[in-house]
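hey so i finally got around to running the thing on that chain from the lab meeting. sorry it took forever, my laptop kept dying and i had to restart like 3 times. anyway pasting the input first so we r on the same page abt which one it is
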Amino acid sequence: MCGIVGYCRLSPNADQPIDLQHMNDLIAHRGPDEEGYYSDSSVGLAMRRLSIIDLVSGNQPMSNETGTLQVVYNGEIYNYRELRDQLTRQGHRFTTQSDTEVLVHGYEEWGEDLPRRLRGMFAFAIWDTEKQRLFLSRDHFGIKPLYYAQVDGMLLFGSEIKAILSYLGLSRRLDPKALNQYLSFLYVPEPHTIFRGVQALLPAHNLICQDGQVVTRRYWEFQPDFNRYKSPQEAIESIRAVFEDSVRAMLVADVPVGLFLSGGIDSVSILAMMARHMDEPVRTFSIGFGEREKHWDELDAARSIANYYKTQHREFRLDPDVVNLLPRVVQHFDQPFANPTSVILYLLSGETRRYVKVALSGTGGDEMFAGYPRYLGMMYYQRYRHLPAFLRKGAARLARQVARDATNGRLGPQRARRLLEGGALPFDDCYLRLLTVLDETRKQSLYAPDFRRTFQEPDTFSFIRPYLALNGDGNSLGEIERLMSADVQTYLPYNQLAYGDRMSMAQSLEVRVPFVDQRLIEVAGSIPLRWKVPGGTTKGLFRKAMAPYLPQDVLNAPKRGLNLPVALWFRHDLRSWVRDLLSPEQITRRGYFKPEAIDSLLKEHEAGFRDHSLFIWALVVLETWHQLYIDQDAPLMTASMSSGLIEAG
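ok and heres what got predicted. didnt touch it at all, straight out
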């Protein structure tokens, strides 16, 4: 069940017509199986359903016995059976086997406290006719999206921005601050969007619309307890139990379930747990590139793992036809989003959907188990900062002027350069440098003066700094733990989970993420860093926890990740396309950048001195988005397009 839209009139005078059918049609790709509607003089609710659980009687909108509550819902509640049993004992009567009905009776019993009790991914809307209250809620980590806007005395909401933009009274004014942040992080940090009038409901938040007022409230916040475990072995045992339970819970479905398989420890660990709880071979799916781009993919490793576990394995290969793919991808995000991996997932999801309706993914394993190399980099920084400031400043200047980036897809030289560039900065600022795709000073130098003056707030990092401050209980976290906690609340939902949802839903595929489970994150977040990275090994404690289930070569393999080889393509196959798209004439027309500055950046990349591929990709995505959503006033899609992959082997 994968898409919701709706509206609530904030004033009796708000009588503008709303085309609820059209709003719902625009998200048909999220749920092609069914649609449903409810409306009265105050609200309109609609949904598109991808049938996963209770295929026969799980239709929406769903109401209680008296019809005083109406719910539309996107997601899966993995503990719905336990909640159903509890609510039945308390006198509630269920008429379906759907997890949706738990929301209806749960709201009757617990009101606004309902979301705290849910284990899963969700975004839902409940209309209470007696209290004339609209209640919206989004899951703990933002796996499922929910956007809203207030305009002409109405609240509009939906799983995707395009549904809200369909209301013609909503202006499409670009937010310069959001654009500035996008060009640093490749995404627009929530709650903002690229459109000034549209916001995202933050993870772990409710929105209540009543008596003409709209308020949002946080309903859950993780509080680490570093006294939870007495020893690393006790933590390992807890990881095993909770991780296996998370995977087991996410296998519940009345349709086939598969797995996105790479050669990395996250997806292989999920595979090992799936194999323990399934009576048939696991269906696995992998994607890669051609022979020239082998440095960028993990097909060989995935194939070896599939053979080891005797899965039903399929793999696919991608060519550099991003010229035709990019507009499709951009239209599913509705705003600039420049993680190139989204293209890979879009194609992999399309092919996977031919065989299964649900797929599990390893997203989320790095943030709390210390899997990113940047965490190790910051551990090195903790020692490096004790050097005299003049030495660190000299090293930063030398790295900026002399050090070359790799041209074969290896990120080590680039990471080392960026760490040296940030080595003269305070701890938090050094980390923020590692998160951004271009040095802040260099980025600002690209802007046209008139555009630069439109920023209302000069601090690009304002959205993340509160998460780097003290923990909510007043106790200061360790330096690296603060970074990981901030990533869970920003990088994970705004980047990783965002493209996971949009690209899979574009292909009508439901993706579940066992690592992004509040019980597992409560475990991982309460483990001291010194246990997580023993001997400087990323994700070391998790590797020990999975050792009984995984082959040795997986346990010892370094983190690689699957990346689109745009660095190579921008120097060869796609060079002319990029030059045309970012021509001086087009750059001048937009008014955001100085044409000569962009030309200089492109030349540095083409010469192999700097790998500016991610920033160039951000510019290409921005231009494509501008053409679709501003120049053409968004000819919004209502259906998914074919993927164009080649099945290998």
